[in-house]
Every structure is written in structure tokens, then in C-alpha cells.
Write a structure and sequence with these properties.
By secondary structure, the chain is mainly alpha-helical. The protein is built from 13 helices and 2 strands, in the order ββααααααααααααα. The chain has a two-stranded antiparallel ribbon with strand order 1-2. The radius of gyration is 21 Å and the shape is globular.
């Protein structure tokens, strides 16, 4: 098989589907262990989780493959390489096999992440919002960064930009980024990104458990009282999540409660919105310096937006950046195991 340069940073590799499959299987095994631990922790607190959950979550990520295929297919058609893209992907049994494993990996990761994020509160953990607010104020010269930046951008137009931009940009880039990597031709790049993503979100979920916090918009809601009319989308989502959280607390206290949505759990430390953008930027920049730089700019917007909208303390977003960098470096260190280097210079297409 023709070698495929992994990126423009001087690291060309030979495609090794077998090694990539083994690496992804290791990622699946890692997620499986986390799910077993989650089941044990939750059962100790009288909470039974659906065993079918990971399979349902995995099925959802197969749709991401189709989204990505449409994206890559349009680009390939424009470059008059649609036939080559089809040959290297959906007509390649090994590509299909590794793609299925990647989707399963992401599904299991999503199930574990949502389960532990909401499960942290179902297990009766106490929040440390006051501590995070105090740390933020200490490192920011005695003033809360949330208060400072909220006052700095206290303008209806600017608040509206962060209100819509923060949530919509994250959702758009999350779907586009994961779908694109799932459906791109080749094996090595996809394997590295999905495994780095697994480390990022797994570590983030455990940090939610170790440092439980609702977020400044909940712990210090009065700060956003005057700004809420200018951020209707954020206000709606935050109210929806706090209603779900109140059901969790009611359940813990033995009171009547409504349905608990595991996909709407609260967790502030770290900010994985910021972390995901940073991780994606690091990977994209290896193949496209301009694309990576644009994503770093988007990461800065998400960093600032997470503070202004009240979803996160500044230390949460800093932690998200650090976690993304660590996840990236760990995978770069492990990468030669499934992406051995070669002096070949041929392109992937």
C-alpha cells in the first residue's frame, strides 16, 4: 500500500491497518474498564445503568461517518478524485473495519463520559464552586475573571455574539471535526485523533468526579442577573440543566423527582469545550497550518466565551488547555506503534 504522509511536520508514515486496529481495540478496552468502574460505583449508590447504553451510543456515531463521507465526497468530487476516495474508503474492507472500531470507541467514551458526569452528583458528591471562584480571584489580582470579562463585554451585541457563538460554534466544530476524522481516507491520522480524544474526555470525566463543580452561573448566579436578557440561548440551556440537576438532588434526598437526563449533567472543571477545540487545532495544524491557526483562534473565542457566559471559571478553561496538550503529547509519544515512520513522500490521494 502506498505510504501516506501523516502531516506536513516531517512525519510521513506507512499505513498499517492492523496496528491501527489493535490500537483502537486498546482504546475500546480502556473505555470498557472505565464503564465497568462506573457501573460498580453507581451500583454502590443504588443506581442501575442500562447495559445496552454503550451499544446505543456507538450506533449514533455511525451517522457521523456518513456526515464525514458527504464532506470528503464533495471535496473529492471538486478535486476530481471521487473515485479514489470511494476506493480508499467504502470499498476497502479494512477501512470499514477500523471505522467501525472507531465509532464503537467513541460510543463507549460518550456513554462513560455522560454517565460519570451526571453520576458524580447522583453519588452525592459535594461541589467546590466557592474554592474555584477563590482560586480564580487569587490569580486574577483579587477580582473574579467572570465578573471582569462580563463587565468588559457588557454590550447587547457582544453578549449576543458570545451567547449564540459559544454553543453553536462548539456543536458545529464537534460534529464537523469528529465526522471528518472518522470518514477521512487512511488509518493513522484517524487512530491518533480518536485515541487522543479518548484520553481528553476520559480524564475530563474523572476530574469532574474529583473536583465536582456546577459552574459560576449556578454557584454565583447573581453575577449574571442583569446580563441574562442579553444571552437568551445561554439562559435557556442553563435553566434546562439546572432543572435536571434539581431532579438529581431531589432523588438523593428521597423526594419525588422528574426524569434525569444523563446527557445534561453539570460539570465545570475542566472545560472540555475549550479542550476539544485545542486538541483539534493541534491535530489539524499538522496537516494544515492555516486551518490549525484558525482553530486556535476559535479556541481563544471559546476560552473567553466560557467565562463570559458563566459556564466555566477561568481555571476550568486553563485546565482544559493543559489536558488537551497532555493528551496530544501522550498520543504523539505512542504514535510510532501504529504509524511507523518512513522516508516516503507520496501523498495520501
Amino acid at each position: 500500500m502506498a505510504p501516506e504522509p501523516f502531516a506536513s511536520d516531517g512525519d510521513p508514515v506507512v499505513e498499517r491497518p492492523d496496528r491501527c486496529a489493535i490500537a483502537v481495540l486498546a482504546g475500546i478496552g480502556f473505555c470498557a474498564i472505565e464503564i465497568v468502574i462506573l457501573f460498580v460505583l453507581m451500583r454502590r449508590h443504588g443506581i442501575e445503568l442500562l447495559i445496552s447504553g454503550p451499544f446505543v451510543a456507538s450506533a449514533g456515531f455511525f451517522s457521523f461517518v456518513l456526515y464525514g463521507a458527504v464532506l470528503h465526497g464533495v471535496v473529492a468530487l471538486f478535486r476530481k478524485r471521487a473515485g479514489l476516495y470511494w476506493k480508499r474508503t467504502f470499498r476497502n474492507p479494512r477501512w470499514l473495519g477500523v471505522t467501525a472500531l472507531l465509532a464503537i470507541n467513541l460510543g463507549m467514551l460518550s456513554y462513560f463520559y455522560q454517565g460519570l458526569k451526571t453520576g458524580t452528583w447522583l453519588m452525592g458528591r459535594s461541589g467546590v464552586d466557592s474554592l474555584l471562584w477563590a482560586i480564580d480571584s487569587f490569580v486574577f489580582f483579587g477580582m473574579s475573571p467572570n465578573t471582569f470579562f462580563l463587565n468588559l463585554f457588557d454590550n447587547p451585541v457582544l453578549l449576543g455574539v458570545f451567547d449564540l457563538g459559544y454553543g453553536m460554534l462548539f456543536l458545529f466544530v464537534l460534529i464537523l471535526g469528529i465526522a471528518s476524522y472518522l470518514a477521512m481516507p487512511g488509518f493513522a491520522r484517524r487512530t491518533s485523533f480518536i485515541l487522543a480524544n479518548t484520553l481528553l474526555w476520559s480524564a475530563g470525566a474523572w476530574l469532574y468526579f474529583a473536583v465536582p463543580a456546577m459552574g459560576p452561573a449556578y454557584g454565583f448566579s447573581d453575577v449574571w442577573e442583569e446580563a441574562r436578557p442579553g444571552m437568551p440561548a445561554t439562559t435557556y440551556l442553563q435553566r434546562r440543566l439546572i432543572e435536571n440537576h434539581l431532579n438529581v438532588l431531589a432523588r438523593n434526598e428521597g423526594l419525588s423527582f422528574g426524569s434525569i437526563r444523563f446527557a445534561e449533567g453539570l460539570g465545570a472543571f475542566p472545560s472540555l469545550h475549550v479542550g476539544f477545540f485545542a486538541l483539534l487545532a493541534l491535530f489539524v495544524r499538522r496537516g494544515s497550518r492555516r486551518g490549525g491557526n484558525w482553530l486556535f483562534g476559535a479556541t481563544a473565542f471559546m476560552f473567553l466565551g466560557s467565562i463570559i457566559t458563566g459556564w466555566h471559571y477561568m481555571i476550568d478553561s486553563v485546565a482544559g488547555l493543559i489536558l488537551a496538550w497532555l493528551s496530544y503529547r501522550v498520543i504523539r509519544w505512542l504514535e510510532p506503534r501504529w504509524a511507523p515512520l518512513t522516508p516516503a513522500k507520496d501523498g495520501p490521494w
